């Protein structure tokens, strides 16, 4: 089961490791959830899997974080 908070924490960790935020087409493993790729997370967000509400892409979820990190 995933929460949006889990995704944001993992994206922040990804940023710390790689200097960039993940994108929804990436097959890289997700920190803290090595059984998932960022592509899996994007699909889960869009389709509402793993306990997430449907209808939101990874890019949309990360937009506020992207703005915060670029400030």
Compact description:
The protein has 71 residues and is mostly helical.
The average pLDDT value, as a whole number, equals 96
In terms of DSSP E residues, the strand content is 5-15%
Calculate the terminal CA-CA distance, rounded to whole Å: 32 Å
Radius of gyration: 11 Å
How many DSSP helices?
3
Read across the widest sheet, the strand sequence of neighbours is: 1-2
N-to-C order of helices and strands: HEEHH
Uncertain parts: none
The major beta sheet can be summarized as: 2 strands, antiparallel
Coarse structural class: mainly alpha
Describe the global form. Answer: globular
- Portion of residues within helices: 40-55%
DSSP strand count = 2
Comma- or semicolon-separated keywords:
mainly alpha; two-stranded antiparallel sheet; 2 strands; 54% helix
How would you characterize this protein structure?
Helices cover 54% and strands 10% of the residues. It is built from three helices and two strands. A two-stranded antiparallel sheet has the order 1-2. A hairpin with a 2-residue loop joins strand 1 (29-30) and strand 2 (33-37). The longest helix has 15 residues, at 4-18. The model has no long low-confidence stretch (mean pLDDT 96).
